[in-house]
């Protein structure tokens, strides 16, 4: 499984525009083949920063999404709202530490 984070800094007056875009596309992204999890996070110290956190079955599933019309149209509408370059990275779980109790 691949875990993807995308950190986005928005122009303060354009954050509402992004939230509308996310609201309109989140259900479609979540049911995209290979998407296992999707959430939107807010930075507690920077109110105009949001992060998406998603889980994908594989790097191929993520790449298929990134090549889709859904991604292309959503990203095109989103990237014009940025105040800074987005930061994206993919990870995989190495270890999960359970509570000993």
UniProtKB/TrEMBL annotation:
What are the UniProt keywords, alphabetically? Monooxygenase, Oxidoreductase
Supply the Pfam families for this chain.
Answer: ABM (PF03992)
Molecular function terms, GO-annotated: monooxygenase activity
Q: Which domain of life is it from?
A: Bacteria
Q: Does the keyword Oxidoreductase apply?
A: yes
Q: Where is the ABM domain?
A: 2-93
Which PROSITE patterns does the record cross-reference, listed alphabetically?
ABM
Protein name, as recorded: Antibiotic biosynthesis monooxygenase
Source species, please?
A: Fibrella forsythiae
């Amino acid at each position: 499984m691949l875990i993807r984070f995308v950190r986005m800094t928005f122009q303060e007056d354009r954050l509402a525009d992004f939230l509308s875009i996310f609201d309109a596309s989140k259900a479609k992204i979540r049911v995209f083949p290979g998407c296992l999890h999707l959430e939107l996070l807010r930075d507690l110290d920077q109110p105009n920063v949001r992060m998406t956190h998603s889980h994908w079955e594989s790097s191929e599933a993520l790449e298929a999404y990134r090549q889709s019309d859904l991604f292309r149209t959503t990203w095109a509408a989103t990237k014009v709202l940025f105040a800074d370059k987005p930061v994206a990275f993919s990870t995989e779980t190495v270890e999960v530490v359970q509570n000993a109790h």
